[in-house]
Amino acid sequence: MAEKIMKKVTVKDYLNEVKAGGISTDVAIQRGNNQWKDLQKGEFISSLMKGFPIQEICTVVYKGETLLIDGLQRTTAFLGFYNNELAIEGSHSELDGKKYDELSEGDRNKFDNYEMNIEELRNVTKEELSEVFICLNSGKPVCTVQKLKGYAGYENANFINKMCKSDLLTKQADFTDMQKRNSADIECIVQGMILVDAYFNEVSEEPYNWKNISRKEQESYCENVLSHRTAEELKKYEDIIDYASSIGGNEIYKKTMIPAIIFLAKVAMVSEVTVEEFDKYVTKMGKEKPPAYKENMGSGNVSKNSTVGRIKALFDDFKKEYPKKVTMELDFDTSNKKKVDKAKTKDSKKKATKSKTVADKETTEVSANPDATKDTAEVASTDVSSTNGVSSEAAADASSDTSVATNEDSASDSSEADADPTKDVSDGTEVVA
After folding, report:
1. Where is the GmrSD restriction endonucleases N-terminal domain (predicted)?
2. Number of neighbouring beta carbons within 10 Å of residue 47
3. Last residue of a domain, one of 84, 108, 136
4. 19 shares its domain with 128
5. Structural domain total, the chain
6. Which residues contact 373 (CB under 8 A, 6 or more apart)?
7. DSSP 65-134
8. Is residue 11 part of a domain?
9. I need a labelling partner for 306 at 20 to 30 A (CA). Which of 10, 39, 167, 365 fits?
10. Is residue 272 part of a domain?
11. Contacts by 42-45 with C-beta closer than 8 Å and gap 24+?
12. Same structural domain for residues 150 and 219?
């Protein structure tokens, strides 16, 4: 069990330990160190210089290494100021605009000797490490996507980080500044993996039973599927993303396109479509998408029906482009037949558990039993509504996901909030050219 230690250290001693490598800031499940703009960093330093309290920093000792688990943005601000890379902002005093070396000796001492609290957890297991990260970030909308790495587990979070550095996510993806700050790259990787697992069950015996590609579904996938993947299994996803990264183009693919490209890359690999052929198709498709793709954009585009509508449109179009190579057939049926069958089975089991006496009595009344007729009608109604549109659960998830995206664009975190949204728009929906 983890042991908690509370320590008081000065800013200078803390920074010396960080620079010496005694505290690692390169932690797989942490978000990037670019969440704060220089103005926010300068205002944070201003608060410190006024003697205001700052939230404690949290570290954990895992496999003998001390990891910074909460406080990366504050640490980045400390280092930036100490290295004369940013100035104090918002102090409404003569300190405004000054860098560390421009301070008087007394003010430098005030910064160096400021005492802050560090909460250190020792003897932490891999499972506890992920739990600590998720717990620390609970209730912080700006960290929702980053929590996916916590659900995936510390070891597999390294895989996500590696994939986020691929050319597909760093060069071809056309993310807005807000999407970049809200870690859209992580979200796209996980959504792409969900689609691959849903239609190509190479790792599992059964295809992944997905509801949609909402944030809630992403969390479930990371916790229940990705966290159990071995390094060998993850290599298969890496090969897909490496293949997808071979396409040309420069920042032309919107956020919604990236998971679809990952899915299509898998189709191309199985069909032995060359990299050049795949590049040619995706580049063309990036400029002009199939009409059926456009029809499934707009509000609620994370729902299963809309997502399937988009990838089916691309799949069908891809088959027309290379009919001799892409000969596979995929089942894009979005109806909830399995759920209906389960409902019938459950209903049958309930009836089978009735006592023999009651069963005998009902034998003579089956034909006139209004409940049986009602059950049958309800099941039929469920099947029809599920087939014709998005289920109520999927619709709720889609609505929730859009809401989350909006909140992430505007919400602040008491200790390490995202940069101001300014005029950037939410990525709940995307306009297709």
Report:
1. 28-130
2. 14
3. 136
4. yes
5. 2
6. none
7. EEEEEE-HHHHHHHHHHHTTSS---S--STTTT--GGGS-HHHHHHHHT-EEEEEEEES--HHHHHHHHH
8. yes
9. 167
10. yes
11. 42/81, 42/86, 42/87, 42/88, 42/89, 42/90, 43/89, 43/90, 44/74, 44/77, 45/77, 45/78, 45/81, 45/86, 45/88, 45/89, 45/111
12. yes
What is the pTM assigned to this prediction? 0.58
Domain identity same for 158 and 306 = yes
Give the sign of the dihedral formed by CA 262, CA 264, CA 267, CA 271.
negative
Q: Which residue has the tokens 């009344």?
A: 365
Instruction: Specify whether 324 is located in the same domain as 176.
Output: yes
The tokens of 298 are what? 């707009």
Name residue 103's amino acid: L
pLDDT in tens, the chain (433 residues): 678 899 999 999 999 999 999 998 876 655 555 668 888 999 999 999 999 999 999 998 888 889 898 888 899 999 999 999 999 998 778 899 999 999 999 999 999 999 999 999 898 887 777 677 767 765 554 446 777 877 887 778 889 988 999 999 999 999 998 898 888 999 999 999 999 999 997 777 788 999 999 999 998 999 889 988 998 999 999 999 999 998 876 668 899 999 999 999 999 999 999 999 999 999 888 888 999 999 998 766 899 999 999 999 999 999 999 999 999 999 998 764 443 333 333 444 444 444 444 344 444 444 444 444 444 443 333 333 333 333 333 333 333 344 333 333 333 333 343 333 333 333 444 433 3
Task: Verify that 149 and 27 share a domain, yes or no.
Answer: no
Single out the residue of 115, 112, 56 nearest to residue 81, CA to CA: 112
Does 352 reside within a domain?
Answer: no
107 plus 171 within the same structural domain:
no
Residue 237 located in a structural domain? yes
Q: Are residues 131 and 208 in the same domain?
A: no
Residues 222, 121 share a domain = no
Q: Containing domain of residue 194, as a range? A: 137-339
Cβ–Cβ < 8 Å for 317, 291 = no
